[in-house]
């Protein structure tokens, strides 16, 4: 229940100060490392284990139609924008391709559906995008920045007469930390603490 809605008080001077402090972003293009699917595994932290059945080289030859999905693993956490090419294959292209992309930081993010999520925060913050593609082949560059390691491509619908494939998938990772920036390495004399420190540094980078 919403008790009261307060109007936003926009401070132009604050906005100008914030704008003046924006750093230049370093951009690095990252490529997917493998095609994966997840299976139940009680010994894993999220209860899921990644299985790699297919070589990434076969990605452009995989034909996908209504209800099909693939998950790409980039191997590390990133923040930025994804780009890919969609090609149609079939008798004739008599409908758009409706596609959902889900951006996952963990396996659960790409294994659980988001259709009926109930939350107090706006669902427009959910890390997924639904787009319609009318012409093929077509290169898509998503305008919204996402944080992820995994990207799931769900074919919501095409038509019975054609399917689609994906190629040239890349992710422009952006950060205010330059790639050649060196920091002092601290050894905590504990493998777990060292891994936590590495994850913390990566989080600050992103």
What would you say this structure looks like, in words?
- By secondary structure, this protein is mainly β.
- The chain is built from three helices and nine strands, in the order αβββββαββββα.
- A hairpin with a 7-residue loop joins β2 and β3 (48-51).
- The model has no long low-confidence stretch (mean pLDDT 91).
Number of helices: 3
How much of the sequence is in beta strands? 35-45%
Q: Helical percent range? A: 10-25%
Mean pLDDT over the residues: 91
Taking the sheet with the most strands, its summary is: 9 strands, antiparallel
Tell me briefly what this model is.
With 206 residues, the chain is mainly beta. The chain has helices at residues 12-20, 107-111, 191-205; strands at residues 26-30, 34-40, 48-51, 69-90, 97-104, 128-133, 138-141, 146-157, 162-175.
Question: Which helices and strands appear, and what pairs or packs with what?
Answer:
Layout: H1 12-20, E1 26-30, E2 34-40, E3 48-51, E4 69-90, E5 97-104, H2 107-111, E6 128-133, E7 138-141, E8 146-157, E9 162-175, H3 191-205
Antiparallel strand pairs: 1-9, 2-3, 2-4, 4-7, 4-8, 4-9, 5-6, 5-8
């Amino acid at each position: 229940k919403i008790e009261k809605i307060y109007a936003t008080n926009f401070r132009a001077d604050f906005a100008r100060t914030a704008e003046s402090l924006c750093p230049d972003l370093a951009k690095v293009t990252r490529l997917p490392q493998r095609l994966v699917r997840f299976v139940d595994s009680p010994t894993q932290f999220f209860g899921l284990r990644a299985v790699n059945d297919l070589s990434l080289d076969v990605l452009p030859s995989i034909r996908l139609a209504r209800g099909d999905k693939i998950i790409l693993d980039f191997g590390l956490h990133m923040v930025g924008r994804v780009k890919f090419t969609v090609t149609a294959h079939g008798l004739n292209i008599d409908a758009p391709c409706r596609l959902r992309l889900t951006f996952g930081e963990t396996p659960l993010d790409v294994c659980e559906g988001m259709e009926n999520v109930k939350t107090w925060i706006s669902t427009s913050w959910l890390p997924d995008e639904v787009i319609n593609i009318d012409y093929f082949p077509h290169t898509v560059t998503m305008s919204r920045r996402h944080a992820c390691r995994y990207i799931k491509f769900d074919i919501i619908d095409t038509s019975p007469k054609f399917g689609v494939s994906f190629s040239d998938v890349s992710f422009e990772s952006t950060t205010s930390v330059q790639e050649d920036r060196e920091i002092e390495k601290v050894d905590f004399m504990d493998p777990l603490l060292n891994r936590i420190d590495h994850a913390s540094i990566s989080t600050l980078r992103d």
